[in-house]
């Protein structure tokens, strides 16, 4: 006989497949009334916070490990590793805390009450003297370098003022309910000090980069006449006593006998590879079998693992100019290290400089291997110019009404066992399919899609040579990456048809290439089955066209 908890768990599994781990676990916590049971207990609020934190980490990892079994395997592995900043213990409540933020770090955030102290420091002082000046516009960036220090130009000074005004605007728009801005002035015998008068808040208030004292005061008087705005002299404010606080009576809820409005849910939805992947029924079990013998990892295999590490590795290759970083020269090595360091410092942290330098060296070597390896027959990325590639290429595919995941499953089965996903659910896919292609590029007269994979595959891999076609093929099957690149190729096909028009031909599609960044080596040689660290599938133009026809609305097919 099933218990209430058992039924909740069964419902949670179904919800997991449909909406992900976070939705399933959060619903289970609500159904089991965990908050009501824990809050009266000492330390209960902190335990609830910890559960919410774990759910957040599981949700982030769920983008990569779509099934319960895969996520469980990741969780067991993560518990045995040291965590970064994302795994630091959080406070149970920050309701009574004051948050101190810089203006730059507050972009995109909002707070009920915002105080802007030291506003007088937002002033433009006299022109700077430097030996290097940077100037950017729509055409690019220009560096002016001189032997000695020179005075900045009037144009640069104006740009500096405009940037300061933009920063002041950011600061003033962070408050949701109340903003307190104090701009003290250093008085002289003739009025305000000249430098203090050139304040960014005054510039924003008056609309002038050279605000005059009288105009500033007139603007403050006009501003103070608006409802909810109060402008006072600091001396006056210090002598005032606080007014008595009066509480307004609660507003009466007038019942007009009308039901509350309900949202009209659209028939269309926006799907992605990740959402389709989550809908797969999980018949696999987490891996608890024999693994490779434990031992120290070397090179890029020792590079940190996890989502942030993957973002760092992806970011390096997104910005790298492949021909420039390919040569085996000191200059190219310095460029590779600079790229690696910039992304590692953005996403990761290390206990000391030696650990950071080690990671930078490993990542720099990885970049060298990736651009110099023969990832496709006769094709190396070092031959692909920046103008022949598109990184993080977004797409939004229109899907026909009535299309279901079951229709997609049938099509994949007809493509062959390599592409089949027998446990795909029957979810509705009407609407749109969205995503980002890591890299789309042209080479040897054809177009290809490429995806960077930072998977460590620690249960099978101890050296780069262990990234065999068999091991990578199994990883592709577990994560259903073949469905991912089929979707990407359909997106590329539609893009090329729209751009090339009548000049488009399906023979222009080269196929898909999945690069496992920890397994690629510039010294590896391509054999009959391929090359270590790279999975290549030409797919075939006919399969891509048939899948595109399955997705296309009927009116577009006509």
Question: Outline of this structure?
Answer:
The chain has 558 residues and is an alpha/beta fold. The protein has helices at 4-19, 21-31, 34-38, 44-61, 68-79, 154-172, 194-197, 200-206, 213-224, 234-239, 273-278, 307-319, 322-325, 330-347, 353-372, 405-415, 469-479, 481-500, 541-551, 554-557, and strands at residues 111-116, 129-137, 140-151, 175-181, 187-188, 191-192, 269-272, 389-399, 431-443, 446-453, 509-516, 534-537.
Distance between the termini: 56 Å
Helix coverage percent: 40-55%
Give the mean pLDDT.
81
Number of helices: 20
What structural class do you assign from the helix and strand content?
A: alpha/beta
Strand content: 15-25%
Instruction: Tell me the major beta sheet.
Output: 6 strands, mixed
Shape designation? globular
Contiguous runs where pLDDT drops below 50 for at least 5 residues: 283-290
* Radius of gyration, in angstroms, nearest whole number: 30 Å
Describe it:
With 558 residues, this protein is of the alpha/beta class. It contains 20 helices and twelve strands. It has helices at residues 4-19, 21-31, 34-38, 44-61, 68-79, 154-172, 194-197, 200-206, 213-224, 234-239, 273-278, 307-319, 322-325, 330-347, 353-372, 405-415, 469-479, 481-500, 541-551, 554-557; strands at 111-116, 129-137, 140-151, 175-181, 187-188, 191-192, 269-272, 389-399, 431-443, 446-453, 509-516, 534-537. The strands form four sheets. Strands 7, 8, 9, 10, 11 and 12 form a six-stranded mixed sheet that branches. A two-stranded parallel ribbon has the order 1-4. A two-stranded antiparallel ribbon has the order 2-3. A hairpin with a 2-residue loop joins strand 5 (187-188) and strand 6 (191-192). Helix 2 packs antiparallel against helix 4 and helix 18 packs across helix 19. The longest helix is centred in the middle third of the chain and has 20 residues, at 353-372. The two termini are 56 Å apart. 24% of the residues are buried. Mean pLDDT is 81; it is low at 283-290.
């Amino acid at each position: 006989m099933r218990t209430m908890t058992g039924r909740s768990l069964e419902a949670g599994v179904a919800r997991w497949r449909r909406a992900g781990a976070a939705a399933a676990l959060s619903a289970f916590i609500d159904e089991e009334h965990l908050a009501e049971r824990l809050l009266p207990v000492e330390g209960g609020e902190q335990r609830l916070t910890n559960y919410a934190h774990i759910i957040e980490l599981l949700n982030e990892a769920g983008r990569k490990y779509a099934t319960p079994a895969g996520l469980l395997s990741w969780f067991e592995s993560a518990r045995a590793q040291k965590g970064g900043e994302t795994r630091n213990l959080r406070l149970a409540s920050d309701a009574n805390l004051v948050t101190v933020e810089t203006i730059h770090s507050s972009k995109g955030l909002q707070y009920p009450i915002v105080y802007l102290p030291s506003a007088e420091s937002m002033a433009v002082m006299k022109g700077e003297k430097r030996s290097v000046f940077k100037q950017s516009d729509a055409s690019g960036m220009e560096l002016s370098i001189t032997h000695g220090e020179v005075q900045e130009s009037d144009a640069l000074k104006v740009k500096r003022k405009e940037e300061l005004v933009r920063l002041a605007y950011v600061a003033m728009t962070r408050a949701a309910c109340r903003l307190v801005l104090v701009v003290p002035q250093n008085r002289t015998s003739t009025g305000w000090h000249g430098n203090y008068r050139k304040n960014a808040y005054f510039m924003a208030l008056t609309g002038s980069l050279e605000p005059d004292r009288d105009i500033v005061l007139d603007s403050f008087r006009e501003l103070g006449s608006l409802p909810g705005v109060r402008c006072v002299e600091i001396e006056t404010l210090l002598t005032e006593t606080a007014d008595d606080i009066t509480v307004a009576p609660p507003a009466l809820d007038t019942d007009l006998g009308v039901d509350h409005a309900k949202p009209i849910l659209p028939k269309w939805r926006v799907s992605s590879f990740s959402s389709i992947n989550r809908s797969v029924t999980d018949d696999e079990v987490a891996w608890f079998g024999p693994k490779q013998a434990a031992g120290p990892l070397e090179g890029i295999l020792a590079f940190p693992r996890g989502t942030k590490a993957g973002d760092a590795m992806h970011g390096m290759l997104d910005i790298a100019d492949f021909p420039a970083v390919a040569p085996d020269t000191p200059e190219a090595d310095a460029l590779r290290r600079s790229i690696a360091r910039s992304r590692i410092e953005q996403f990761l942290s290390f206990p000391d400089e030696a650990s950071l330098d080690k990671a930078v060296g490993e990542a720099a070597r990885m970049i060298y291997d990736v651009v110099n390896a023969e990832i496709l027959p006769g094709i190396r990325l070092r031959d692909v110019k920046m103008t022949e590639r598109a990184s993080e290429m977004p797409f939004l595919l229109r899907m026909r009404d009535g299309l279901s995941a079951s229709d997609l499953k049938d099509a994949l089965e007809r493509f062959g066992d390599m592409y089949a996903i027998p446990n795909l659910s029957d979810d509705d896919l009407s609407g749109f399919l969205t995503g980002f292609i890591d890299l789309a590029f042209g080479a040897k007269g054809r177009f290809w899609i490429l995806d960077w994979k930072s998977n460590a595959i620690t249960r099978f891999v101890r050296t780069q040579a262990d990234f065999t076609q068999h091991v990578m093929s199994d990883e592709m099957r577990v994560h259903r990456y073949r469905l991912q690149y089929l979707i990407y190729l359909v997106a590329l096909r539609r893009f090329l048809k729209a751009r090339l028009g009548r000049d488009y031909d399906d023979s222009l599609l080269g196929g898909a290439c999945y690069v496992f960044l920890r397994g690629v080596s510039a010294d590896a040689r391509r054999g009959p089955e391929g090359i270590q660290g790279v999975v290549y599938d030409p797919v075939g133009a006919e399969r891509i066209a048939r899948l595109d026809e399955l997705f296309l609305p009927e009116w577009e097919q006509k």
